[in-house]
Amino acid sequence: MEARWRALAVLTAARTSMGFQFQSIASVSAELVPALSLTYADLGFLIGLYFLPGLLFALPAGAFGQRVGDKRAVLLGLALMVLGGAITALAASVPVLAAGRLISGVGAVILNVLMSKMVTDWFAGREIVLAMSIFVNSFPIGVGLALGSLGWLAAGYGWASGLGVSSAAAIAALLLVGAAYTTHPNDGISAAQGHTFGLSRREFGLVCVAGSIWGIFNGAFSVMFGFAPTLLRSAGLGASETGLLVASATWLVAASVQVGGLLAQRWQRPALLMAVSVLAWSAAMLAMAVELGPPGVMLLAAGTFMGLPVGVIMSLPSQALSTDNRAVGMGMFYLWLYVGHGGIPPVAGWIQDRVGHPSSAMIFIALLVLSILVLYAVFRRQVSAALAVETGG
Questions:
Q1: Same domain, yes or no, for 149 and 293?
Q2: Residues 21-46 pLDDT 10s
Q3: What confidence score (pLDDT) does residue 181 get?
Q4: Do 268 and 337 fall within a single domain?
Q5: Nearest CA to 163 among 50, 39, 40?
Q6: Percent of the chain with pLDDT over 70
Q7: Is the pLDDT of residue 211 over 90?
Q8: Is the dihedral of CA 105, 106, 111, 116 positive or negative?
Q9: Which residue from 206, 207, 213, 203 is spatially nearest to 313, judged by alpha carbons?
Q10: Cα 325–328–330 angle (5° rounding)?
Q11: 318 and 180 share one domain
Q12: Which SS3 state, helix, strand or coil, does residue 201 take?
C-alpha cells in the first residue's frame, strides 16, 4: 500500500473515535438522565458542549501544530480525549460531566484541524476529493457505531461503562496513530524553517470563503435533522416511522459522501457536481416543507443529495493555502464550521418561533444552502484570478 493511502487509513480509523465519543452522551442518556437527575436541558447542554471549544481553539490548534508538529499535536489531542472520556465516566454531577466534555472537545478540535491538514499534505493535487470524502465519513461512522453499541452496553452495565468505552476508543486511536502513522515531510515544516504563522491576504480571503461554505453546510445539516422530526410528525407520521426515516436519511448522507468522492474523481467536474447536488438538496428540502411530495421520501432524497459535494468542499483549502500555511489555514477553515454549527440552528429556531409553522425552519435552510453556490463561484473566480496573476495571464 502506498504511503499516502496507509496514512489516510490510519487517520480515518483514528478519527472515528471522535464521532464515537461525541455521540456517547446521547447514547447512554436513557440511563444517565435518571441516574444523575439531569434535566433534558442539561443533556442538550452536554451534547453541544463537545463542539463549543472549536470557537476558541480552532485557529490556535493550527498554529500549535505548526510549532510542535502535526503528529505530536494530534497525539496530544487524543490524550485529551482519553482524559475527558475518563472524567465523564467517573462523574457524579453536571459540572464534572461538563468539564470532561470540554476537555474532550478541545482534543477533538485538534484532531479536526490537524488531521484534515495531514490528509491535505498527502493528497494535495492528486485524489484530494476522494481522500477527503473517505476521511470526512469517519465522523458519522463513529456516531453510527456509538448508536449501535453504547445504548445496550449502558442498559446492561450502567451509563459509566458507555462513557468509559469512549475513552478506550480514544486510547486505541492514540496507539494507532503513534505506532502506524508516518509523518509527512510537511509535518511541522513551518516551525522548523522559521516561517510566520500569518496568512497572506489572498489566503485569508479564500479560506474564509471556503470555510463559510463548510459552515453553512454543517449548520444546514444540523437544522435539517434537528427540525425534520417535528415536520414529519406534523405531517401525520408516527414516532417510530419518523425515527426510522431520520436514521435512514443520516446513513444516506454518509453513503452519498463516498459516492460524491468517486464521482468527482471520475468526472473531474467539481463545479457540475456541486451545482447539481446543492440544487437537488435544496429542492428536496423545499418540497418536504411545502408538501409537494411525501415528506419522508423528500427527506430521504435530501439525504441522498446533500452528501455528494462534501469531498469537493473539503478539497477547497488545498487550493487556497500554501504548503507552509496549511495548518493555521485549516484552523481558520474549521473556525467557520463551528460558527455554522453554533449560529445557524438558533436562527432557524427563531424564524420558526416567529412564523409559527413547522415548515418555516426547513424553508429557511432550503434557501440558505443556495448561497453555497454563490460562495463557490466566488471562490473559483478568486482562485482563477490568482493563477492568472501568477502566470502573467
A1: no
A2: 988 888 888 889 899 988 877 887 88
A3: 96
A4: yes
A5: 50
A6: 95
A7: yes
A8: positive
A9: 213
A10: 100
A11: no
A12: helix
How many domains does one find in the chain? 2
138-157 and 159-180 helices cross at what angle (nearest 10)?
A: 140
Question: Is-contact 129 46, C-beta < 8 A?
Answer: no
Judge whether 229 and 299 are in contact, CB under 8 Å.
Answer: no
Q: Are 263 and 256 in contact (CB under 8 A)?
A: no
Are both 90 and 208 inside the same structural domain?
Answer: no
Let me know whether 266 and 224 are in one domain.
yes
d(CA 201, CA 10): 34
Please give the distance of CA 286 from its chain centroid, rounded to a whole number.
Answer: 24
Q: Which cell numbers hold the place of 68?
A: 510542535
CATH number of the CATH domain containing 309: 1.20.1250.20
Domain of 230 in residue numbering reads as 201-391
Confidence band of 367 (pLDDT split at 50, 70, 90): very high
List pLDDT tens digits, range 255-296: 999 999 899 888 888 899 999 999 999 999 999 988 888 888
Contacts of 71 (CB under 8 A, 6+ apart): 118, 177, 181, 183, 187
Whole-number pLDDT of residue 192: 39
What is the mean pLDDT of the segment spanning 179-207?
74
pLDDT for 190 beyond 60: no
- Which of 165, 193, 221 is the last residue before a domain boundary? 193
The 10 Å CB-count burial string (b at 16+, else e) for 153-181 is bbeeebbbbbbbbbbebbbebbebbeeeb
CA neighbor of 86 nearest in space, from 161, 173, 177: 161
Q: Which region among 205-219, 306-320, 342-356 has the lowest average model confidence (pLDDT)? A: 342-356
Domain boundary among 125, 160, 193: 193
- Which span out of 52-61, 137-146, 152-161, 208-217 was modeled with the highest average pLDDT? 208-217
Whole-number pLDDT of residue 88: 96
pLDDT recorded at residue 393:
53
Contact 32, 25 (CB under 8 A): yes
Nearest to residue 322, comparing CAs of 68, 66, 74? 66
- Can you spell out the DSSP letters for 281-337? HHHHHHHHHTTSS-HHHHHHHHHHHHTTTHHHHHHHHHHHS-GGGHHHHHHHHHHHH
Spatial separation of the C-alpha atoms in residues 375 and 357, rounded to whole Å: 29
**Amino acid letter for position 369:** V
Q: Is 104 helix (H, G, I), strand (E, B) or coil?
A: helix
Contact 264, 255 (CB under 8 A): no
